[in-house]
Write a structure and sequence with these properties.
Elements lengths: L10 E4 L9 H11 L5 H13 L5 H9 L8 H21 L6 H10 L3 E9 H11 L5 E7 L3 H11 L7 E5 L2 H9 L3 E5 L5 H6 L3 E3 L4
Parallel strand pairs: 1-2, 1-4, 2-3, 4-5, 5-6
Helix pairs in contact: 1-2, 1-4, 4-6, 7-8
């Protein structure tokens, strides 16, 4: 990635899955495995929905996916599936590959007085544990996970730190990330993946394959 793209930006908002870690496919497989008990038709539908909605919180996805099954989508069943999903993915996400060049870029930005913020659909406690294990917590001034909505989270950070919007950019890989940037009138950079091919055709913004 040409660092000139970020040269005028002082504040960088990062998504996590598919932007920092190559973990989107891990979560697709986990969702499919989790819902396989209700048959392949449901599990494939779940997998396909997740791939198209990577930035959506599991707290929104799992009740939706349960509505496609014979299971009652009550608080207990939702909580159990959320916990089961967390157990399936946490260690695999930590062990997954870095998006090429991302750590060098984050370190470069940090060393050059740029401020990074992490805004992700991963639950708050889980993302804090993951970043701690990866030893990258210090790179981020704020770390916001679900259930906080991304658009709201970015808006609150902008207000809290009195950020001038033309000084800020969001780097993401999903329509949810793009909408969060649009909602807050900040620039957006799309990290291109196999899962967002359709999105690439439908939005107008800077796009990168990786951060090398």
């Amino acid at each position: 990635m040409d660092q000139k793209i970020l040269a005028s930006k002082k504040h960088i908002f990062w998504d996590f899955d598919g932007v920092i870690k190559e973990s989107v496919e891990i979560k697709s497989t986990a969702y499919e495995e989790l819902f396989l008990r209700w048959g392949k038709r449901v599990s494939f539908k779940v997998r396909d929905h997740h791939k198209l909605n990577g930035g959506m919180s599991r707290f929104d996805k799992i009740p939706l996916y349960l509505s496609w099954t014979t299971e009652d989508a009550n608080k207990i069943s939702i909580e159990k599936l959320c916990n089961d999903f967390s157990k399936l993915v946490k260690s695999k996400v930590i062990g997954s590959s870095w998006v090429p060049g991302v750590i060098d870029l984050i370190d470069y930005l940090y060393s050059n007085n740029r401020v990074s913020y992490l805004v992700t659909a991963t639950p708050q406690d889980e993302i804090e544990d993951i970043l701690c294990e990866l030893q990258i917590t210090h790179f981020f001034k704020e770390i916001i996970g679900s259930p906080k909505n991304k658009s709201i989270a970015i808006g609150e950070i902008i207000d809290m730190h009195k950020i001038v919007k033309h000084d800020a950019v969001m780097i993401g890989d999903s329509e949810t990330d793009f909408i969060a940037a649009q909602d807050n009138n900040i620039d957006f950079i799309l990290r291109k993946t196999n899962e967002n091919n359709e999105l690439q055709l439908n939005i107008n913004c800077k796009m990168v394959n990786n951060f090398l």
